[in-house]
Amino acid sequence: MQLQLPALVVALTLQSQLCFAQPTRTPDSPVSEDDFRSAIVNIKNATWHLPRSGPAKCVSGIVEVTAATTKNLAFDYELPKNQSQVAELAVDFLTASSGFPEALVTGMQKAGGTFSIGSTLCLPKNNTKPSTVQILTHGFGFDRFYWDFAPGYSWVDIAAQHGFATFYYDRLGVGESDTPDALNIVQAPLQVEIAHQLIEMLRSGHFGVGFPEVVGVGHSFGSGITQGITAQYPQDLNGTILTGFSLNSTGQNSFLASLNLEIASANAPYRFASTPPGYLVSSTAISQQIAFFKAPGFDPDILNLVEATKATGTLGEFFSLGGIVAPATEYDGPVAVINGVNDLPFCSGDCNYPTDLAKALLPALYPASNKTDTYLAPDAGHGLNQHYSAGRAFEFAQSFLEKVL
């Protein structure tokens, strides 16, 4: 589906009206539209909204999450004060002999608090309450609407068609969520704890509706968080889907260089003027294309919309991602890995070289799981959901879950 940019910009203004559905799974229990509205609790500033197309019912707002960790890293480092220092930071990161950022780490530190997290919960609009919810965690450069980006580019849409509920949220530091200290607070270990708390809320009925089964779905950094959940809290998830992810790091330097990171408040002051120091964004649409896209597998208007809606990441996240990924030896649930075949950061542009890198991940990180599968989306880069072939990847994921749950 090719859309003109003006239509996409209009769609962007309706981000709070995202979610799609055409349920096909067997209904679990009936719930009317009025029941849905009256049942939902503990979502502040709740907005009830219709989907962009197709029958679904969604509520968006703010969820208060209390989370803490003792595993955030402590650094001997001062945040960059200007763009020249950010550029030099990238050079240090890319220099083979610099030992960066490991050389900056002085130990571990506690971090935590009660945080406001921008969130959306969607149910299929067929007067049923699904037994399974997918918690969707986005990666760097996007907010939660990565999962429901535009008509024809919506994981939420396809999940609802298959009868699944979805809960997607802005990571701490992104979108409608709080933006605390970018170095000491917003790090990968605390993001894992926030996701863990959200999973417990979904399962326990904290929002007024409980889900016996929770599936974790991530993209890129969000996959790292999801994988970290399976390693640290193996009972949290009934299924796991990792997208834009592998154990191959040879493309990471190319990815970082292509982003050409800039201070968010300087790059887009009309959006990020109040963003604290240490929050960064990719610089231009060309940066987005190199890092996230693969021609000819995308619509240029979608690329422009990605640039117009780009989100922040923090230095703390960049420095701490590697610390949360570990073999999930006690997790025996189903796992699927889905990548764009031309993913740059996790495959150096070819996920089949020197072997299928999605398949290589499974025995290394999930030795106890015997229900696994992989899919490589054709003509797609790291930003898988924004490519023409995204729909095939979405269908693969939902069909996999229907088989294994």
At a glance:
The protein has 14 helices and twelve strands. With 405 residues, the protein is an alpha/beta fold.
Per CATH, the superfamily is: Alpha/Beta hydrolase fold, catalytic domain
Shape: globular
Strand residue content:
15-25%
What structural class do the secondary elements suggest?
Answer: alpha/beta
CATH overall fold name: Rossmann fold
CATH architecture: 3-Layer(aba) Sandwich
| SSE series | HHEEHEEHEHEHEHEHHEHHEHEHEH
User: How many structural domains in the coordinates?
Assistant: 1
Biggest sheet layout? 9 strands, mixed
Number of strands: 12
As a percent range, the share of helical residues equals: 25-40%
List the helices and strands and how they pair.
Elements: H1 5-13, H2 33-39, E1 44-49, E2 56-75, H3 83-94, E3 105-124, E4 132-137, H4 155-161, E5 165-169, H5 188-204, E6 213-219, H6 221-232, E7 239-243, H7 252-259, E8 262-263, H8 264-267, H9 269-272, E9 279-281, H10 285-292, H11 300-308, E10 313-314, H12 315-320, E11 335-340, H13 357-365, E12 372-377, H14 390-404
Parallel strand pairs: 4-5, 4-6, 6-7, 7-11, 11-12
Antiparallel strand pairs: 1-2, 2-3, 3-5, 8-9, 9-10
Helix pairs in contact: 1-11, 5-6, 7-10
Signal peptide: 1-21
Protein name: AB hydrolase-1 domain-containing protein
Domain AB hydrolase-1: 135-386
Describe the structure.
The structure is a single chain. The chain is of the alpha/beta class. It has one domain (5-404): Alpha/Beta hydrolase fold, catalytic domain (Rossmann fold, 3-Layer(aba) Sandwich). It contains 14 helices and 12 strands. Helix 1 (5-13) runs parallel beside helix 11, helix 5 (188-204) packs across helix 6 (221-232) and helix 7 runs antiparallel to helix 10. The radius of gyration is 20 Å and the shape is globular.
